[in-house]
Amino acid sequence: MTDDTRASTHRRSGGIPLDTVVATPSGWVEAADLRAGSAVFNERGRISYLSRDPIIVRDRPTMRVSFSDGSGVVADAHQLWISHTYKARHHGHDPKVVTTEEMAASLRYGTASSRRPFNHAIQRPQPLQYPRQAHLVDPYVLGVWLGDGSKHNGTVTTASWDAEDLASLVEARGYPTKTVHNGVAGGNGRLVKMYGDFQRNARALGLLLNKHVPESYLRGDVQQRLDLLCGLMDSDGSSANGRCEFYNTNRSLIDGVAELVRSLGCHGRVSEKASYPDRLLPQGHKPRSLQRSWRVSFSPTFTPFKLPRKIAAFHRPRRQRGAAPGPVLGPRQWRTVTSVAVEATRDIVRVEIETDPHLLMVGRELVTMLDSTPRARSLVRASERTAARLAA
C-alpha cells in the first residue's frame, strides 16, 4: 500500500474512502486491504485483478452520491463516473465521463428547477460470476426451508393449494416428503415434511435454531443463487406488476436475501414494517405488541419463482392503464443520481484494475464507477476535448 500525501497530483484521480467495502470472490473486503493482484468484480460481474497496490491520498474532499433505487456511496469529489445523461438516455447521445463535483453541478437536466428531470444515471451491474460451489443442501430446498420451515427440523409450512407442487419440487431435488394437515380444524394450512439427509446437513451448516443464508450460498454460481432465491420466494415471497417482495421477521435472513438479490444484478431495497398495525385490530380489542418485520423489494429481469401459481401471478398482465402485459423483464438499466451532498474531508484510496473499460463495483449495493488508472483519467480529457469541439 502506497501512502501519497501530495493531494494536488491526484486532483483528477478520484478514489473511495478507506473503509468502503468491495466485493471479491472470497467475500467483502475493505478497499484499504486490497493489494496488487487482488481479485474484484468489474461491471460485467466478471473477475478482474488489481494492476498495482492501492494508493492512499490524505485529506480529500468527498461527496455522497445517492440514487433513485435507495442505494448510495461516498466518493472523492473528483471521482470519475460514466454518466448516461438525460440526452444519452432519451436522445441517443453518447455517455459522458464526469466527476462527482460535475454531477452535483448538473444534477437536473436543463436548469436546477426541482421540476426538471434528473440528468445523470449510471448503468446497473451484471450478476456476479462466482464459481460453482459444492453445497450440503440443495439451494432451492434450503431457500424453501429458510422462508417457511421450522427452525427445529425439516418441516415446511405452506397452503393447501401449493402443497402438492411444493412437495414435487422438493422431491425432484432428492428429498422424500410427506404432506399432512397442520392440525387447525377447517384451515388450509399444510405441513410438508422433508426427509433424507436434510436435517443432518442443516445442523452441520449451523442453521437449526439459527436461520440465515450461509456465506457459501451467497458465493455460489448464478444458477445456484437463482435456485436459492426461487426457494425463498416460493415460501415467503410475492409479486405484483413485476415487482417482487420477500417478507420476514428475521433481520439476519433479510440481510442475506438483500445481498443475494443484489448479486443477481437487481437492487434489493430493505424497508421495515409493523406486523400487527393497530388499525387492523377489531374494535374493542387491546393493541398487541408490534412485531418488527422487514421486506426486500426488487424488480427482477428474470422469473424468481418455481411454484406454478406464483409464476402465473408474476407473469399476469400489469394493471396500470396502457401498460404492456407481463412483468418488467427488460433490464432496468439505470440508477439515476438523485442527490450529491458534500461530506467531510477524508482519506481515500485509489484502486486500479487491469481490464477495460476500468469499471469496478464498490459498496454493498454494487455501485459501478471508474477506477483511478491513467486510462480512466484520459477519458475525461477526451470528453472535455469533444465538448469543446462541439461548442466551437
What is the topology?
Elements: E1 2-4, E2 16-17, E3 21-24, E4 27-30, E5 39-41, E6 47-49, E7 55-60, E8 62-67, E9 72-76, E10 80-83, H1 86-91, E11 96-99, H2 100-105, E12 121-123, H3 139-148, E13 155-159, H4 160-171, E14 177-181, E15 189-194, H5 198-204, H6 215-218, H7 222-236, E16 237-240, E17 243-248, H8 251-263, E18 269-274, E19 292-298, H9 308-314, E20 334-342, E21 346-350, E22 359-362, E23 367-370, H10 374-391
Parallel strand pairs: 1-7
Antiparallel strand pairs: 2-21, 3-4, 5-6, 7-21, 8-9, 8-20, 10-11, 12-20, 13-15, 14-15, 16-17, 17-19, 18-19, 22-23
Give an account of the 3D structure:
The protein has 392 residues and is α+β, with helices and mostly antiparallel strands. It folds into 2 domains: 2-124 and 333-391, Beta Complex (Endonuclease - Pi-scei, Chain A, domain 1); 139-314, Roll (Endonuclease I-creI), CATH 3.10.28. It is built from 10 helices and 23 strands. It is elongated and about 65 Å long. The two termini are 44 Å apart.
